Amino acid sequence: MITFLTGENSFEVEAEIKSIISISGLVPEIVDGSAIDLNELTGLLTGMSLFSGKRLIIIKNLSDNTQIWTDFADWLTRVSDDINLVIVDTKPDKRTRTYKELQKLGVVKEHTPWTERDNNKVVEWVIDTAGSEGLELNKKCVQLLIDRIGFDQWQLWHGIVKLSLLDKVDEQVINDIIDANPSENVFNLFESALRSDRATVSRMIRILELTEDPFRMFGLLSGQAYQMSTLAVSDEASSIVAKELGAHPYALSKLSSYAKKMGRGGARKVISLFSKADDDMKISAGDPWLLIERALLGVADI
Predict the structure, then answer these.
(1) Is 80 exceeded by the pLDDT of residue 32?
(2) Which of 27, 69, 165, 212 has the most other CB atoms within 10 Å of its CB?
(3) Distant-in-sequence, close-in-space partners of 237: CB < 8 Å, separation ≥ 6
(4) What is the pTM (predicted TM-score) of this model?
(5) Cα dihedral angle (185, 191, 197, 199), rounded to 10 degrees?
């Protein structure tokens, strides 16, 4: 039996590996595929174990071994029936013959990172995982936890474990205990500008510039500006716009009131401010944090 686990969602990949090991009841032989040579591979896949007829072999990063990976398609039919072979690769080249052969066999299981489109799925997972840790969270707390952490499963799991150690968990506790991810910082910063709260904008900029990359932060802010402007010029409900943009419906709903207030004219000004900041950054016309602050204070003045 062959299983090919791929994708950048390492949490789900590791969970599936643990499940395979548990179900098989075998001690896995874990191999670094990037360093294996042809003789080792031959012995591994055709040799017999002295202790058991059945074997579980887990090969990681085999596609990094270009020559072996290229020829590995020829080995797929030669793997012993007594071997449960698990191949683990984060980003294999899908154009290669080996990948296409594995796909034909129907053994490829891709685990992609969660995004805003997966919000409902993430909510269910957080509720179930929290329950397994003896932690009961209402839907508001679940959504707040996701908003503060984001969609990274490892970070969500660590957050759940941290909260499970407390006697009582509510929204205030989550705000106090769980550090906000950059995306929430970005939303709070942009929302402060939309509220014309110039003092908060400047204060947050001074804090963020100590730890954050300005170009990454500007990219995230530009995304917020684009989403808000799209809402401002659209006649559709925020949920429909969110679906079209592939954005988080809850996040867009929070921008909806500002978009309506700003209107089409205000949205054009916001886009103009961010376009100017983007142009200035490309030609290094000033400190990037000052350019970000200038754009946001411009939004505050609309």
Answers:
(1) yes
(2) 69
(3) none
(4) 0.65
(5) 10
